[in-house]
Design goal:
Blueprint lengths: L10 E5 L8 H14 L4 E5 L5 H5 L11 H6 L4 H4 L1 E2 L5 E4 L5 H8 L8 H9 L12 E5 L6 H9 L2 E7 L8 H14 L5 E8 L6 H14 L12 H5 L7 H4 L4 H22 L1
Parallel strand pairs: 1-5, 1-6, 2-4, 2-5, 6-7
Antiparallel strand pairs: 3-4
Helix pairs in contact: 1-12, 6-7
Bound molecules: adenosine-5'-diphosphate and magnesium ion (MG).
Length: about 270
Amino acid sequence: SIGTSRPGKPRVLALANQKGGVGKTTTAINLGTALAATGEKVLVLDLDPQGNASTGLGVDRKSRRISTYHVLAGDSDLAAAIVPTAVPRLHLAPSTLDLLGVELEIANERNRAHRLRLAIDALGVRSVLDGDPFTYVLIDCPPSLNLLTINALAASDAVLVPLQCEFFALEGLSQLLTTVEQVRSSLNPRLSIHGVVLTMFDPRNNLSGQVVADVREFMGTKVYETVIPRNVRVSEAPSHGKPVLLYDLKCAGSQAYLKLASEIIQRERSLRAA
Ligand code: ADP
Ligand code: MG
């Protein structure tokens, strides 16, 4: 399977956008599920104190004994936080509201921006739960460019940016790109932009089409061909604690996430060939 730049290590992708409600968590859950369905072994790492990825994957608060908070605080290694989900080959490192305070707790530590990278590196070959090492880690970032997101960017090979098809889609994008550039030059030289995924596309809304055109003009081939449609099944699935692919495999949302997964794997192959 895939592990392009670092043999034996997973590809680490951060789902980042400091705007809330753009589809980061939905994409982490459903892209993760789609990648697992194609045979990849995937870890979704919930780095948002809200814990929506954990809830959406059916891991309730009571079952989050060890969370990404404990990992960042230095109280646990990552392997101990990982739990299985209802999806074969898809595992979760859950989050809890404790994460809200971790930024202050580690503010004076010299390695405060590298704690997640160190935890993922230490996972290494010990990422063997049911046999195989992880091939992908998807980090669901909080809606902020805070120390949690910096930790995610410092730990990642590449950033995947969900953008909602709405009027202000591009607003804030340059700030995110600047942050990525700063992390690349100071903390993590291998960081790149994997791609931009347009979410919640509504074909009945002329504006949606215009936004797609504008974002493609601004970001060029970085924008994935796959556009995720607005689909009520996608928004219903989390309340059942399921990825939409388990909730309704045939719906347009599930099919779009499967297509996105194959596009991402394709992009990984051409990166590896380059
Ligand atoms: P973020 O993590 O960026 O804050 P979410 O993934 O939580 O964003 O999405 C915000 C809201 O939009 C959620 O209620 C989610 O269910 C809904 N949503 C996301 N993607 C879709 C979609 N393709 N179709 C319909 N609703 C969606
Ligand atoms: Mg979220």
